[in-house]
């Protein structure tokens, strides 16, 4: 099962801030492989992940995960896809302030309809895998920036998603840890056969990826409203 | 498979609950929730206390009327308010009703007076004049019924009166003689009935003739003089009887009101009701506004987290439920504690003041407070559902 975008056009913002990010984008992400999504800041990496992650509906085009077109789903169906099939690590703001590291993972399990009582052990193991076995009971304000990102990564991996979307996983961690996390992502991707897309600026992560895609998002310095007004 | 979007299926599961998260959020913000709970508690306690006084004062005002087993009272039509005091009807009216209802029509006279017992106890009493042996005669818990004489023979010619337990509590006993102040009319306590009062004055039940002598007495006149054969109203038990009250009223020049309607005739009753009810109305308006204000601030504050929950796949209905559970916990806990406070206040006040808060009233009142409090949060629910998961892309936390 792969992820295939075809003819995807995405505009973000309204009125003066209306920005055409992608126009007629075609891209394919194979299963069981890590694709590194690279490109300068503002090239649309996060936007592409949001489209793939059923958070953002493209204006046009199809976004096929297996045989489901995410672009054709309504709000409730997209929410269902997110909780059951997609693991997502955002660039920032991933954690719920009230919960401990373990509970962050259990929360995802709860939302997906699992029986969290059985998941507690698994959550501890998942946190140990990102090197946080000693921080299980810490809440976000008691974790460092890099530790918070690792909790978020552990949560994205926790429910064995079909689609794993990771935005800048190593922005706040040192080189050695970055390599470890990149290895963990590859290992899990190869083991579960999920489609993995990692947006990154980090050569360590790019080196560990199986393929690379330069994000083709529009970088026009002019507001898109100017061009779209004529077209 | 029948659900929409079949193709989303392989890992299809029913959506899980976030109640656990809702409770953890309360735990993490327990300071704020405690504060909010305390406000709800105080409002609930105040509602409970006011409700206790409403019932207590109401009982103090009309429990004697409530105790009369009549369904209606026929007053003279010219008495518009304070009817038991102002209305006078005569034997002609009584006979007309007796023709229709037989023993289910009985005269009743009500007036408030005061007296002193032969052992020097001053008492206020709401004198209810009734025909001994009529259906209005109160059951006695000790002693003999209204109209018994001496203690040897029970006859309608006696002057025995039955007093409310409240008068007995002041130290008046069966066998005491009460002299009505200024008129010098005397009567003998024959029996004691339950705690009943009228217009905050404890009730005493007198033979009708004795009542008429008191009602129509003139200070200094001969206490044995003949009094008019009139009384306040004809009490009726219409149960099942096929009579038109309106026709009877037209024919007899009376105004017949239901027993509950007659409560309005008790002095102070409507005034107390209006005061107490308006306090309660205001509290019931304050409760939802306070709770609503708290939850709208709370919701605005955690909009980013709601967006994250949405991004993780929680549906709008789940988040609504999530937020409602949080509100319900605070509001229900606050109302429950408030109810206990009201009970405590009631117990501390003791018998000294008219306060009555039966468990069923308390429960209903607290449920109402919790209900309106919860309704106050309805205003914030729109904000809950409008949390946008896409904001996660620009989140900076
Ligand atoms: N809500 C929005 N309204 C208007 N324009 C937006 C909005 N969000 C993003 N953009 C624009 O879309 C473009 C792509 O943004 P995106 O966040 O996808 O970039 P990125 O490649 O992830 O950048 P970075 O590497 O800095 O994270 C940017 O030029 C940005 O200004
Ligand atoms: Mg980005």
TrEMBL record, chain A:
Gene Ontology MF terms: ATP binding; ATP hydrolysis activity; transmembrane transporter activity
Family matches, as InterPro entries: AAA+_ATPase (IPR003593), ABC_transporter-like_ATP-bd (IPR003439), ABC_transporter-like_CS (IPR017871), ABC_transpr_LolD-like (IPR015854), P-loop_NTPase (IPR027417)
Keyword ATP-binding (UniProt): yes
Domain of life of the source: Bacteria
SUPFAM superfamilies to which the protein is assigned, alphabetical: P-loop containing nucleoside triphosphate hydrolases
Stretches assigned to the ABC transporter domain: 3-227
TM segment ranges: none
GO cellular component, one term: plasma membrane
The keyword Protease is annotated on this UniProt entry: no
Keywords linked to the UniProt accession: ATP-binding, Nucleotide-binding
Protein name stated in the entry: ATP-binding cassette domain-containing protein
């Amino acid at each position: 099962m792969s992820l295939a975008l075809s003819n995807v056009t995405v505009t973000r913002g309204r009125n003066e801030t209306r920005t055409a990010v992608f126009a007629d984008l075609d891209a394919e992400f194979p299963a069981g492989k890590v694709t590194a999504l690279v490109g300068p800041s503002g090239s649309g990496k996060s936007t592409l992940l949001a489209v793939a992650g059923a958070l953002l509906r493209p204006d046009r085009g199809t976004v096929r995960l297996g045989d489901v077109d995410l672009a054709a789903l309504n709000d409730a169906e997209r929410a269902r896809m997110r909780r059951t099939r997609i693991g997502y690590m955002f660039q920032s703001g991933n954690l719920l302030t009230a919960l401990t590291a373990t509970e962050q993972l259990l929360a995802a399990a709860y939302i997906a309809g699992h029986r969290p009582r059985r998941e507690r052990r698994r959550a501890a193991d998942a946190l140990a895998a990102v090197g946080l076995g000693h921080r299980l009971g810490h809440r976000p304000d008691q974790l460092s920036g890099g530790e918070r990102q690792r909790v978020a990564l552990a949560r994205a991996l926790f429910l064995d998603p079909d689609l794993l979307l990771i935005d800048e996983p190593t922005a706040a961690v040192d080189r050695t840890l970055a390599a470890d996390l990149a290895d963990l992502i590859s290992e899990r991707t190869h083991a579960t056969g999920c489609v993995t897309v990692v947006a990154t600026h980090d050569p360590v992560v790019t080196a560990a990826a199986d393929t690379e895609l330069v994000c083709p998002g529009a970088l026009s310095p002019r507001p898109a409203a100017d061009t779209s007004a004529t077209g | 498979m029948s659900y929409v979007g079949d193709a989303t299926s392989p890992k299809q599961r029913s959506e899980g609950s976030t109640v656990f998260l809702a409770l953890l959020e309360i735990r993490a913000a327990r300071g704020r929730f405690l504060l909010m709970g305390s406000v709800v508690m105080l409002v609930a306690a105040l509602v409970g206390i006011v409700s206790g006084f409403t019932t207590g004062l109401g009982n103090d005002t009309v429990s004697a009327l409530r105790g009369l087993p009549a369904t209606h009272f026929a007053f003279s039509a010219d008495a518009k308010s304070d009817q038991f005091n102002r209305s006078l009807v005569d034997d002609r009216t009584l006979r007309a009703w007796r023709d229709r209802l037989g023993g289910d029509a009985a005269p009743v006279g009500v007036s408030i007076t005061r007296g002193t017992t032969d052992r020097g106890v001053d008492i206020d009493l709401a004198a209810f004049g009734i025909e001994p042996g009529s259906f209005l005669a109160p059951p006695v818990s000790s002693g003999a019924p209204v109209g018994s004489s001496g203690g040897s023979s029970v006859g309608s010619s006696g002057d025995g009166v039955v007093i409310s337990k409240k008068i007995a509590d002041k130290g008046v006993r069966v066998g005491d003689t009460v002299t009505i102040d200024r008129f010098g009319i005397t009567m003998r306590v024959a029996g004691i009935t339950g705690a009943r009062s009228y217009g905050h004055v404890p009730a005493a039940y007198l033979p009708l003739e004795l009542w008429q002598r008191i009602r129509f007495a003139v200070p200094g006149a001969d206490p044995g003089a003949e009094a008019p054969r009139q009384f306040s109203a004809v009490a009726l038990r219409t149960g099942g009887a096929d009579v038109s009250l309106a026709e009877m009223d037209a024919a007899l020049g009376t105004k017949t009101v239901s027993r509950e309607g007659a409560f309005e005739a008790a002095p102070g009753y409507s005034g107390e009701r209006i005061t107490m009810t308006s306090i309660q109305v205001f509290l019931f308006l304050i409760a939802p506004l306070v709770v609503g204000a708290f939850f709208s601030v709370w919701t605005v504050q955690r909009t980013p987290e709601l967006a994250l929950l949405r991004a993780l796949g929680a549906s709008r209905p789940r988040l609504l439920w999530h937020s409602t559970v949080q509100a319900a916990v605070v509001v229900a806990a606050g109302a429950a504690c408030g109810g206990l406070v009201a009970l405590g206040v009631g117990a501390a006040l003791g018998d000294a003041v008219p306060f009555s808060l039966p468990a069923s009233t308390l429960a209903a009142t607290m449920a109402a407070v919790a209900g309106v409090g919860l309704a106050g949060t309805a205003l914030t629910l729109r904000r809950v559902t409008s949390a946008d998961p896409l904001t996660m892309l620009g989140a900076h936390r």
